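Build the 3D complex.
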Amino acid sequence: MIKSALEKVISEDLAEIWSILTNEEKHRIIDAFEIHNFKKNQIIYAEGEAPEYLWCLLKGKVKKFKEGVGGRAQILRLIRPVQYFGYRAYFAQEPYVSSAGAFEASTLGAVPMELVMDLIRNNNNLAIFFIKELSRNLGGSDTKIVNLTQKHIRGRLAEALIVLKDNYGYEDDNSTLKIYMAREDLANLSNMTTSNAIRTLSGFVNEKIITVDGRRIRILNEAMLKKISKFG
Amino acid sequence: MIKSALEKVISEDLAEIWSILTNEEKHRIIDAFEIHNFKKNQIIYAEGEAPEYLWCLLKGKVKKFKEGVGGRAQILRLIRPVQYFGYRAYFAQEPYVSSAGAFEASTLGAVPMELVMDLIRNNNNLAIFFIKELSRNLGGSDTKIVNLTQKHIRGRLAEALIVLKDNYGYEDDNSTLKIYMAREDLANLSNMTTSNAIRTLSGFVNEKIITVDGRRIRILNEAMLKKISKFG
DNA sequence: ATAAGAATATGTTTTATAACACAAATATAA
DNA sequence: TTATATTTGTGTTATAAAACATATTCTTAT
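Done.
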């Protein structure tokens, strides 16, 4: 993918954030941003590093995750095109507390945060856009704390499957998840060991709630998944 | 406490947020805010309600918490004077996802969020203040997810004690925590049952890491607590 | 002052989930 | 292709933490 891809997104207001900007502001971004390609499983940035860019995912799928005790990772957020990330740590004036990596081959635009800050300082609507974005993320993070700490394994995995559907949607058959992730990632998303993710997934298959073909997951009974996610 | 208390905070720049405002803006807030007193354990607002005010804690101690499965609560954040809260849900344009309650008799100022939004729209530095505040909270929330899901009971309780110290500090003896909370709250802060909070606390007493006298907790070996919090 | 209720403390049992072990299937590289 | 590594699957064991039970101490109200 070449630079024109992001230019299109920006100039045609394909994402809420850009519709806020004046033409002059849009051009400042178009002049400044750089396109980066990442391979499957490649790290975009790592915990502890100094934040520099606002990343815009143009194509592919990205995970934000954090390494915990004994190298176990927790996936904190899933990114889809066209979404933005990487700005929180810069705003907080601290190093990254989590890492970002590509699930699959992905194309991203990088806008220097200095420029973003400059735009924010001069465009109040952009500031308000980020206030809303951060507020929504914070609410989601607080909710996640309770979900991950209080639900049992089945509830957490059911929830993860719903999250995957909400983020990446279904294939044309209206039931196959449009993301093909390793069992380990599924485990890291729902705070359990890989063995338990596999085992619990098999359980769902036996109960005819889903079917599984390698990394291809078809959801047969979404209502039941939501029920399990809610009650256990 | 009477209204002049918050006037003092505002006009004398006792909190970072107000130093950003012009005198005219400060007066708009002083004219608009209301003082509310809450008794020990009284709810300030509850999950599901529509957000209306920016709350400013002037005196006392406040907890933000969220009810989970089976009525178990998770304490998400501790508030001390002079800190602000209650604005996230308004910015996100959604109902509260968590509740706020007073640990002890507390005095709060309530500023209508409409006014805050109006000030933000006209004062970019205030917008940037909230961006930074939200960003820091989001980082903390993400870190908390990993701490609460991956650490074992001892680590979580040790961490909670450090958090209490960081938030409310020590008494004049430089070792007694300046907050006296029920074991149940301690449990809700560190994601465990009340029994296990009591048991683990006793363990720390036996190991001469702390002493306990009712709700009075003295920390004898802070370094050891940090070590336990980090490694196990 | 006494009773009733709440909070704290501690021992025992049960259970959910991690840890471990190993086999089979699949992907990757030489 | 064959070899090697990685991922997936499943059974078994170990263990951390919840659940339960009961006693004791501390509060609060009458």
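Chain A touches chain B through 47 residues (CB under 8 Å).
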